[in-house]
C-alpha cells in the first residue's frame, strides 16, 4: 500500500499562489500610496501657491481669500525712471479701449517690468469683458475678485449645475449679495426696484459668463479676494488691494469675502449721533478708549450706504495707530507699519484719496473716467524735485494734511501719481488723449 504521492504540480501551484498574493499586496500598497500621495500633492501646491499668484484650484463660488504679490514685483525705492512701476487700475467694466488708452497714457512697459494690478470689476456693463481679461493675461497682471466677477462666476456655476446653458430661465433661487440690499424701512416701491435691478444683474451676469472662454473664466476664478502687495515703502507701509473694502480691526485672514467685495460703509457705535473719525485724532482724552472700541466688534458693514465710508474709519484708525507708534519712539522695537488699502467699487463717490486708503473707481462704466494709481520709484535726487500733479481735472477729496504727502513719500524713494482717461471719449471712438 503506497501512500499516494502528492501531485507534482502542487508546490508549483502554491508558489504561484504565494507570488500572486505578494503581487496583489504590493499592488494594493502601491495604489494606497499613490492615492495618499495624490492627496498630499494636492495639499502641497495649495500651501505653496498661497503666497504667490493662485493657481486654478480656486472654485467659481469659493474664491481664494488671500494671496500675496511676489516681493520681486514691488518697485525698488530710488530706482529712477527706468525702474519698474506698480500700476493699480480701477473698475474697467469691459471698457477695453479706455483700458488701452490708460495703459498708453501711463506708459505701461512690459519690457521695463511694470506690474499691473486690477481692483476687480473688470467685467460686465461694458462691451468687451473678454477683451479686458485677455489684456490682463497678456500683461501677466494681477487682480482681485470684484462683486461683478463673483456674480458672473456664480451665474456660470448655476448654469452648469442646471445643465441648461441654452435656456435663459428666469428663476431666482440665488441669494447672492446685491449691491443695494434691502433695509428695514424699505418701501414696496423700492423693493420692487431692487428686485428688478437684481433680476437685470443676473441676466447680465449670465450673458457675460457665456461670452467668456473657459480660460478667461478660469483666470477670473483664480483671483483672490484680497491681494497683499507688500511693503511698498515706510510711507505707505503694507499695501493691500481689495474691490470693496476691509472692516478695520479684523485680520486679513479673517475678513468675510462677501463683505470685502461689497462693502462701502460701516455702521459705527455712534453712527446715529455725530460721529467723526477725525475726533479720534484731535480729542486726546478719550483717544485710547474710543480707538479701542472702534477696532473691536463694534464696526458692522452696512448693507446699503448708511453709516460712514469704511475708508474714512480705516484712515482715522491707521493715523491713530501711527501717532501711538511715534509716541512710543524706539523703545518698543520696530513699530507696526501702517496698512494702505487700494480699492474700487465706489463709483458714486468717485476718486477718494486719503492718507491710508485710495478709492480709484472713477465711474468708467457710466462715461466717467478710468483711473490708475501708479507707484513709481523716485530718482536718487528726487527728494529735491517737486513732483507735479498730472491730472488737474480730477476732483479728489483730499485730506487736510495731504499737501506735503508727495514730498514725504518721495523721501522714502517711492511716490504715487494718479492718471486718468475719459471713458466717454473712448466710447465715441475718438483719439486717445
Ligand atoms: Mn463693484
Automatic annotation (TrEMBL):
GO terms for biological process, alphabetical: polyphosphate catabolic process
Skewed-composition ranges (Low complexity): 270-296
Acidic residues composition bias: residue spans: 167-185
Domain Calcineurin-like phosphoesterase per the UniProt entry, residue ranges: 85-318
Extent of Polar residues compositional bias: 381-396
Pfam families: Metallophos
Alphabetical list of SUPFAM superfamilies matching this protein: Metallo-dependent phosphatases
Organism: Daldinia eschscholtzii
Record GO terms (molecular function): endopolyphosphatase activity; phosphatase activity
UniProt superkingdom: Eukaryota
Record region (Disordered): 162-211, 270-344, 381-401
PANTHER family: METALLOPHOSPHOESTERASE, ZINC-DEPENDENT ENDOPOLYPHOSPHATASE
Lineage, opening ranks: Eukaryota, Fungi, Dikarya, Ascomycota, Pezizomycotina
Basic residues composition bias: residue spans: 190-209
UniProt-recorded name of the protein: Calcineurin-like phosphoesterase domain-containing protein
GO cellular component: cytoplasm
Composition bias type Basic and acidic residues, residue spans: 300-309
Amino acid at each position: 500500500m503506497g501512500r499516494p504521492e502528492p501531485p507534482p504540480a502542487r508546490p508549483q501551484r502554491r508558489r504561484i499562489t504565494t507570488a500572486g498574493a505578494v503581487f496583489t499586496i504590493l499592488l494594493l500598497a502601491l495604489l494606497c500610496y499613490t492615492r495618499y500621495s495624490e492627496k498630499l500633492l494636492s495639499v502641497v501646491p495649495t500651501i505653496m501657491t498661497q503666497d504667490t499668484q493662485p493657481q486654478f484650484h480656486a472654485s467659481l463660488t469659493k474664491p481664494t481669500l488671500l494671496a500675496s504679490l511676489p516681493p520681486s514685483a514691488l518697485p525698488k525705492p530710488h530706482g529712477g525712471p527706468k525702474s519698474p512701476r506698480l500700476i493699480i487700475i480701477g473698475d474697467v467694466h469691459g471698457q477695453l479701449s479706455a483700458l488701452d488708452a490708460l495703459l498708453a497714457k501711463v506708459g505701461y512697459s512690459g519690457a521695463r517690468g511694470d506690474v499691473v494690478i486690477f481692483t476687480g470689476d473688470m467685467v460686465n456693463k461694458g462691451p468687451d469683458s473678454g477683451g479686458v481679461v485677455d489684456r490682463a493675461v497678456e500683461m501677466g497682471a494681477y487682480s482681485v475678485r470684484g462683486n461683478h466677477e463673483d456674480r458672473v462666476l456664480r451665474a456660470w456655476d448655476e448654469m452648469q449645475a442646471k445643465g441648461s446653458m441654452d435656456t435663459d430661465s428666469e428663476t431666482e433661487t440665488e441669494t447672492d449679495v446685491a449691491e443695494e440690499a434691502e433695509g428695514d424701512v424699505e418701501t414696496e416701491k423700492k423693493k420692487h426696484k431692487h428686485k428688478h435691478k437684481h433680476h437685470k444683474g443676473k441676466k447680465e451676469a449670465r450673458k457675460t459668463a457665456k461670452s467668456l472662454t473657459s480660460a478667461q473664466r478660469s483666470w477670473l476664478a483664480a483671483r483672490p479676494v484680497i491681494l497683499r502687495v507688500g511693503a511698498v515703502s515706510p510711507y505707505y507701509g503694507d499695501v493691500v488691494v481689495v474691490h470693496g473694502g476691509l472692516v478695520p480691526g479684523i485680520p486679513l485672514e479673517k475678513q468675510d469675502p462677501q463683505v470685502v467685495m461689497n462693502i462701502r460703509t460701516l455702521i459705527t457705535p455712534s453712527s446715529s449721533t455725530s460721529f467723526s473719525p477725525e475726533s479720534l485724532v484731535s480729542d486726546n482724552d478719550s483717544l485710547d478708549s474710543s480707538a479701542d472700541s472702534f477696532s473691536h466688534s463694534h464696526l458692522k458693514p452696512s448693507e446699503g450706504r448708511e453709516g460712514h465710508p469704511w475708508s474714512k474709519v480705516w484712515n482715522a484708525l491707521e493715523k491713530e495707530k501711527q501717532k501711538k507708534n511715534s509716541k512710543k519712539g524706539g523703545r518698543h522695537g520696530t513699530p507696526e507699519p501702517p496698512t494702505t488699502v487700494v480699492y474700487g467699487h465706489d463709483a458714486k463717490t468717485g476718486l477718494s484719496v486719503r492718507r491710508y486708503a485710495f478709492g480709484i473707481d472713477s465711474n468708467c462704466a457710466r462715461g466717467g473716467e478710468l483711473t490708475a494709481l501708479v507707484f513709481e520709484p523716485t530718482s536718487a535726487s528726487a527728494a529735491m524735485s517737486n513732483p507735479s500733479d498730472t491730472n488737474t481735472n480730477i476732483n479728489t477729496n483730499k485730506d487736510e494734511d495731504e499737501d506735503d504727502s508727495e514730498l514725504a513719500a518721495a523721501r522714502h524713494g517711492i511716490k504715487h501719481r494718479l492718471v486718468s482717461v475719459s471713458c466717454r471719449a473712448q466710447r465715441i471712438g475718438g483719439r486717445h488723449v
